[in-house]
Amino acid sequence: MADALDQLEIPYTWHKVVPFIGELTPAPTISDPNAVVMFGSYALWRYAQANNLKPGVFKIRPFVHEAPWHPFLLNGADALFLTLRDVPEQLPDDGKDWFLRPVQDSKEEPGNVKSAREIIDLANKVLALEAHEIPNGSLRHDTEMMFTKPVRILKEWRLWAVRDEIVTFSLYKDGSRVVYRHEIDDDALEFAKMLVKANPDYVPAYVIDICRTDDGLKMLETNCINAAGFYEADLSKLVSSIDEFSPG
């Protein structure tokens, strides 16, 4: 991203995030708090909010609660929803595999497939800790999780949506192989455009992940644009679209 910012002559600064506190070092010098966008850790939203920086970080709503997208979700509203504290009692220890992820876009646990026993063991490890012993950004007793049946995925793409328009995209998985290429199938691009138009004004800027399965194209999830991996996106287009963004 730094190369794209340099090419477009957009000023930026680098900072480290102080773990567990969320402060930045060195402290930034901000001339206009209404013209700041932060990229990096998802936890930066706390700093942006505390310092009234805008747009700051584009926080998203849980995609699974967005009714316009329900017909298109791979892991949808019919998922099993449990808080972590309920997992040991309510998730059957029957050897079944589950795809799991937090409902919120909190990055506490990446979306992945685990056996029921592995999930229960994970929950018990967290529940063995007192609330004050759990670091910020980690799974907590009350973290709401969603569980769905694993599905064979043929391809996965990430697309960047800004003001209800797809501005760039990247392939990031081909079968079981992680592959980053700036390409997308024509029907997948049209599918993503349809999803964005189906839920206008969801968030001013976000990323949307889609996939091809044996049953066709499906929506995987949305992610916070400020903390999502860039893969092989056209960063000049992304940076330009964000720079032109005007809050309100």
- Proportion in β-strands: 25-35%
Might you state the CATH topology name of the largest domain?
A: D-amino Acid Aminotransferase, Chain A, domain 1
Helix content: 10-25%
For the residues shown, what is the average pLDDT?
Answer: 92
Q: What is the assigned CATH homologous superfamily of the largest domain?
A: ATP-grasp fold, B domain
CATH C-level label of the largest domain:
Alpha Beta
Q: Provide the low-confidence segments as ranges.
A: none
* Shape estimate: globular
Structural class: alpha+beta
CATH architecture of the largest domain: 2-Layer Sandwich
- Summed up, the helix count is 6
Specify Rg, calculated over alpha carbons.
19 Å
Pfam families: R2K_3 (PF14243)
